[in-house]
Design goal:
By secondary structure, the chain is α+β, with helices and mostly antiparallel strands. It is built from 1 helix and 2 strands.
């Protein structure tokens, strides 16, 4: 996961992906955010899109 220096003055980059955990999928972001575990991979992807568009 890329680290960013907060003193650099640049906005944080949000790179959201989904991660498989058994029969669940979880949306995670490079900023440290993670969504709820979902059985629906499509809902996990929607969580990731919602996070990146809101940030």
């Amino acid at each position: 996961m890329p680290q960013q220096d907060p003193s650099a003055g640049e906005p944080a980059t949000h790179l959201a992906t989904t991660v498989e955990r058994g029969s669940f999928a979880v949306a995670r972001c490079s900023c440290g955010w993670s969504g709820p575990a979902r059985r629906s991979r499509d809902k996990a992807r929607t969580d990731a899109r919602s996070h990146t568009s809101a940030s």
